[in-house]
């Protein structure tokens, strides 16, 4: 039997635990059972559940106490804890949400709704775990603790989507008295009004029995702009089948009708806080990926990027039949600059030299700092004559204007040497490509050494075989 995840069921009444176990194991979940708070910390450590379903009241505590114990375990802080409350007990439902529970289900419930909510919660946790793994595996700047809580901004934007203008106005009025979110009211027939303005952080939408409501969900989830928007569905009346469909189509939470402003606000606060945390993780991941290709001192690309870019340039050349060029450039007598002005002065020269060369190169190719005072330049769709002309301009942009340094009474002259290899396209199979590129880079390095030996401040070319 394939097990989809481990679910911990906590209830002081054995028949309730057994009923839940039967429902969940039939859907191929592994179920662990408990009945009270005593010993729960050890049970959590041993079983490491993916989800906890707990009665709102236990023999020695409450669902809120369970949530605290789960949060106390650093490995489980992202595990959803769902309270099970008596049916038609609105006060109990609101208390569970205000206590920080991830959701509250009214007992008894239909199998379809229970399993849809379980699937939804486990998908949400999997998304969080994937971001945590990607962040933690990255070598740059991902020290964000998974337990960190980020409060949603009070000015979060919330759009209300209902079937009629009257309903949306009533919901907006009720919510505005309970929250400082920026609210806007729309009808489902005018989704464009929501998408054309500032994108909302959350959408509270009326789940209709017709296909249009579920189609709206699919539309919102398929768009890159609203894929991560919080979707809070509100049913006119309790309808387990419709609620299940909405959850499986991407709704983050479902409020069984009729509309309750207090419950909606509690769910919005929880979901928008979660979105803020995930947005920060995505931004951190994106920034880390950018930084992994960038040299922090000069802002140029780094060696890792350069090797990938040269490979792509060579592939393009093989397809187009046009030539490409590789240059290795090295600032002359850079050690003397460091010795005289310190590493701070040397860093200023590197940064300014990078800026000048990047501006001179323009869109003709890429430039990367590959170590110390050494740079790599790659040009695609070029000829030997064009590459030589550009290399000369790169030398001139460093030589013609001395560098200003704070510790120098007068600007200091700096020059650069460049080794160039102009390559013809290679139509051989890619299995030989990496070896050929290594050879080209070594040839450019040989040309650079020749430029240094000839007196520096010049370009030396090494011809390339076809």
TrEMBL record:
Which CDD domains would you find in this protein's record?
Answer: GGDEF
Which InterPro entries would you find in this protein's record? CheY-like_superfamily, Diguanylate_Cyclase, GGDEF_dom, Nucleotide_cyclase, Rev_trsase/Diguanyl_cyclase, Sig_transdc_resp-reg_receiver
Q: Which reaction does it catalyse?
A: 2 GTP = 3',3'-c-di-GMP + 2 diphosphate
Q: Where is the Response regulatory domain?
A: 6-122
The Gene Ontology CC terms held by the record are:
plasma membrane
Domain called GGDEF: residue spans = 322-464
Q: Which SUPFAM superfamilies does the record match to this protein?
A: CheY-like, Nucleotide cyclase
GO BP, one annotated term:
cell adhesion involved in single-species biofilm formation
Q: Could you cite one Gene Ontology molecular function of this protein? A: diguanylate cyclase activity
Q: Which domain of life is it from?
A: Bacteria
PROSITE patterns for the chain: GGDEF (PS50887), RESPONSE_REGULATORY (PS50110)
Q: What is its EC number?
A: 2.7.7.65
* Pfam name, any one: GGDEF
Which NCBIfam families does this one have? Answer: GGDEF
Name of the protein: diguanylate cyclase
According to its UniProt entry, this protein's organism is Ruegeria profundi
């Amino acid at each position: 039997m394939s097990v989809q995840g481990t679910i911990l069921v906590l209830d002081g009444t054995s028949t309730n635990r057994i009923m839940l176990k039967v429902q969940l194991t039939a859907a191929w979940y592994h179920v662990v059972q408990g009945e009270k708070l005593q010993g729960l910390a050890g049970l959590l450590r041993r079983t490491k559940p993916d989800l906890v379903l707990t009665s709102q009241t236990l023999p020695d505590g409450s669902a809120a106490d369970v949530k605290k114990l789960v949060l106390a375990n650093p490995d489980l802080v992202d595990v959803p804890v769902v309270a099970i409350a008596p049916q038609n007990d609105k006060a109990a439902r609101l208390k569970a949400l205000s206590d920080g529970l991830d959701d509250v289900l009214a007992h008894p419930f239909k199998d379809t709704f229970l399993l849809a909510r379980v699937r939804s919660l486990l998908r949400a946790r999997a998304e969080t775990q994937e971001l945590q793994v990607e962040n933690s595996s990255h070598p740059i700047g991902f020290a964000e603790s998974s337990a960190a809580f980020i409060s949603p901004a009070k000015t979060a934007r919330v759009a209300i989507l209902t079937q009629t203008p009257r309903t949306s106005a009533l919901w907006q009025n009720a919510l505005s008295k309970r929250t400082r979110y920026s609210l806007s009211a729309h009808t489902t027939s005018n989704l464009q009004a929501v998408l054309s303005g500032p994108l909302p952080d959350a959408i509270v939408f009326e789940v209709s029995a017709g296909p249009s409501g579920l189609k709206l969900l699919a539309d919102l989830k398929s768009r890159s702009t609203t894929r991560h928007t919080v979707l809070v569905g509100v049913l006119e009346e309790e309808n387990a089948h419709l609620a299940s469909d909405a959850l499986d189509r991407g709704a983050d939470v479902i409020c069984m009708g009729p509309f309750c402003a207090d419950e909606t606000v509690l769910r919005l606060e929880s979901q928008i806080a979660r979105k803020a945390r995930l947005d920060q993780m995505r931004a951190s991941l994106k920034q880390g990926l950018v930084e992994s290709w960038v040299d922090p001192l000069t802002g140029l690309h780094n060696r890792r990027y350069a090797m990938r870019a040269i490979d792509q340039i060579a592939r393009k050349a093989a397809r187009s039949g046009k030539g490409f060029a590789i240059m290795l450039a090295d600032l002359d007598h850079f050690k003397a600059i460091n010795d005289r002005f310190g590493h701070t002065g040397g860093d200023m020269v590197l940064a300014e030299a990078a800026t000048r060369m990047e501006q001179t190169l323009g869109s003709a190719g890429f430039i990367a700092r590959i170590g110390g005072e050494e740079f790599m330049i790659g040009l695609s769709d070029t000829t030997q004559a064009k590459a030589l002309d550009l290399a000369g301009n790169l030398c001139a942009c460093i030589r013609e204007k001395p560098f200003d340094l704070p510790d120098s009474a007068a600007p200091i002259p700096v020059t650069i040497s460049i080794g160039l290899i102009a390559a013809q396209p290679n139509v051989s199979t890619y299995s030989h490509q990496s070896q050929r590129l290594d050879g080209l880079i070594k040839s450019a390095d040989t040309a650079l050494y020749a430029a240094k030996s000839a007196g520096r401040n010049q370009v030396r070319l090494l011809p390339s075989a076809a």
